[in-house]
Amino acid sequence: MTATDTGAQPKSQQSQADPRPVAPHPTAPPRPRTPTRHREAILDAALVVAAAGGYEAVRMRTVAERAGIAVGTLYRYFPSKTHLLVSALAREFGRLQAAQDWAATGTTPQQRLDRLTGYLHDRWQRDLHLTEAMTRAFVAADSTAAAALDEAAAVIERLLAHTLGGDTPGPLDQPVAELLADIWLANLTAFIGRRASAAQTRDRIDRASRRIVDRLASLTPNS
After folding, report:
1. Domain containing 178: what range?
2. Helical spans, DSSP H, in the chain
């Protein structure tokens, strides 16, 4: 077989045919995360880890790896596990309030509250690991999570008060909302402590809530 058969070329032709290597175009470096994006990524990661394994599974290193950041970066945003989980809970309730106008879901406080509690019941019973993690964090929160705890409580109570009051909130809606939030926390704490079944927990929350709303109606003029 000849050189021509194999496609070989004289050196002079090779030098003309083979172009010089072209340097690759520089790749733009990835945009650094802003503090807000860092925080959101951390909260997303915490929810995924908690939903998969509950409170004990939420380790700061695990969350950091899931979020794609260094552990030190995580601690700059959230100094403790309870602070992290309570902050995630506050964000989720804030999103819930923004996504749905619960004050427009019924004509009476009881109807509106029934819609909201029905939705919340479905969520906590569907994600038991997440329910356990969030409830334990709320109960176990220490001084490192005090501000986050206050924020989460305020978000939850604001959602309940808005649901009760509708377009014309009354002076009793906020204190009643605070009481309803306490009822939820007490019963979910009993549930994760295995002192009540899921069905018992749901029934106790519903019965206590209805008694309180009935009492609110009796105290509200023109109710």
Report:
1. 81-216
2. 3-6, 11-17, 35-53, 60-67, 71-77, 81-99, 109-126, 128-140, 146-165, 173-192, 198-219
Provide the Cα torsion 37, 38, 43, 49; round to 10°: 120
> Does a structural domain hold residue 28?
no
pLDDT tens-place string over residues 27-83? 545 556 688 899 999 999 999 999 999 999 999 999 999 999 999 999 999 999 999
Largest CA distance in the chain: 107
**Domains held by the chain: number:** 1
Is residue 63 domain-resident? no
Separation of alpha carbons 177 and 102, rounded Å: 14
In a domain, 32, yes or no: no
pLDDT, tens digit, 9 for 90 and up, residues 133-150: 999 999 999 888 999 999
Transcribe 48-106 into DSSP letters: HHHHHH-GGG--HHHHHHHHTS-HHHHHHH-SSHHHHHHHHHHHHHHHHHHH--GGGS-
Reading the block at residue 171, the tokens are: 């002076």
Closest alpha carbon to 212 in 176, 184, 187, 185 = 176
> Is 207 part of any domain?
yes
Q: Give the CATH number, domain containing residue 109.
A: 1.10.357.10
Report the SS3 class of residue 120: helix
**Contact criterion met (CB below 8 Å) for 66 and 45:** yes
